[in-house]
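Quick start: read one record
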Amino acid sequence: MQDNYEQINKLVEACKNNDSAALFQLYEFYKPLLLSSVSRCIYKNPKLSRHRDDIFRESVFVLQKLVEQYDSTLTYFSYFLSTRIDINLFRYVTDRYQAEEYFIEDYCVHEDLYDPFNKINSAISIHAALEKLNDKQKEAIELYFFDGLDQEEAAIKLNITQSSFSKRLQRGLSNMKELLGDDFLID
């Protein structure tokens, strides 16, 4: 565990010396945390949902700002980042997209108040599992569950038979269940 903290601190120090490769490694390592923070910003202000992808990409600027503020003699970077990412990203988003003003203090409460049913973490897990499927299975799941097409409509759209679509969908769901574990129920 201590090795991980030391490795992260080395990356942070490299970032402070304008090493963009180190910043990219930090960004990749903390991607789930950043994605969760983006989701909480959008939950707080749903009007931002149309900017989700942009906000996620721009979260690297907030990460870089926090790297510059970090003092390794006070705490570990992971703790520093996790306690500051939401407020800093929310401020950045508010400034960048001129979102409706909120009291920043109202936003700085425990994450569970904004996600009492763990929907954000579930959505992140589902998204990560979808990305691991092959393109055909992913497309079938997206058409059926996210676009709301029935099997016949989706099959027509893909120019395949309904039975082929059904098999593709079932294989995708089986793989999703395998990736997500027994806690994820598929009916």
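Confidence is low (pLDDT under 50) at residues 99-117.
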